[in-house]
Amino acid sequence: MKKKILTITILISSGMLLSFIKLQKPIFTNESLIENANEYMWDNFHSGNYDSIPSILNKLHDAYREDPEDKTNTSHLGFMYLWAFSERGRKEPDPSIEKNIYLSNRYFKEAIKLDPTDYRLLGFQSATNICEGALKQKWGMLAKGYIDGFKAVNKWPQFNKFAFSFVESQRKKNTLMYNIAMKYQWDVIDECSCKKLTKKTILNNPGKVISELIEELKNTNDQNKKRVCWNSWIAPHNLEGFLLNFGDMLVKDGYVKEAKEIYAAIKFAPSYDEWVYKNVVKERIKNAETNAILFNKALDLQHSDRNQIFINSTFSCSGCHQMSKKEFDNYKYLKTLYINS
Questions:
Q1: pTM score, whole prediction
Q2: Are the C-beta atoms of 37 and 62 separated by less than 8 Å?
Q3: 71-86 vs 99-114: helix axis angle to the nearest 10?
Q4: For the residues of 272-298, what is the DSSP string, one character each?
Q5: Cβ–Cβ under 8 Å, residues 285 and 233
Q6: Which pLDDT tens digit goes with each residue over 6-25?
Q7: Residue 112: half-sphere exposure toward Cβ, Cα within 13 Å
Q8: Suppose 190 and one of 38, 62, 197, 323 were both cysteines; which one would form an S-S bond, judging by CB atoms 3.0 to 4.6 Å apart?
Q9: Sign of the dihedral defined by the CA atoms of residues 310, 311, 312, 317, in that order
Q10: Interatomic CA distance for residues 312 and 304, integer angstroms
């Protein structure tokens, strides 16, 4: 009788062990495949190689099949599909272009499940949800995108206020969402400074305020401000891009004179001379009055040849993330620190 009990116990234990083994994630994954895919992505993203997106996605998908629970690789799929959609004006019109926003949304959702503490992803996913809801005319999805966007702002105000306002800069001026987007722009500038910078203060002397803010940020030891308000390996021209977008939104909102001063102040950014898109600043100043009309015109899904507000331009991602060749060479020593960010 004891032998029978022992045999049954062994069989049950063996079955449980086999079930446990089957349920476990494989112990060994090809880490070099994942790392190489992400390195390839960053090299091409930082170089502004939009035409490389198909090969970037192939490598990221190979890595995803190797380990679908790698949160960084999964989030990078979200970012690359978003890049493909955002700068679609670089290519001839493609009726299937909107699929990129759906796939971006999908992978951001997966990445959030893998790492709910990465609050950047909450902001990006809410934005793609808003876009997908609008494209599919699913108003429940659109509403959820807005609700999640406000939740993301509560989790990381400075970063997600900018992300939210960037998306909503496409809205018609004087609408509720555009007004919230403008408010968030003023908020971010204030929160990036130790001074009390109100809308009134900034508009009173935009060039002086922005040039002093750049000097303040250059000397701050506040790492939270450095991450959101300054430049980094991930976004080497974050500051220039933010200010260009701010100027564009002001032009759209009718503050043409003040926007010109803000555009002009971008030159005080220490990295300005290496910014690939610095010529855009001169064009923005020159065409500000015309852009006040163009930025307020309705936009088709496919871009037209006319000037576009930052988010609808052909550099809506590259404007912050692209490096010059000199920067690319200088930043190489940092790559190993950030390659899986």
A1: 0.88
A2: yes
A3: 160
A4: GGG-TTHHHHHHHHHTHHHHHHHTTS-
A5: no
A6: 443 333 344 433 333 334 44
A7: 17
A8: 197
A9: positive
A10: 10
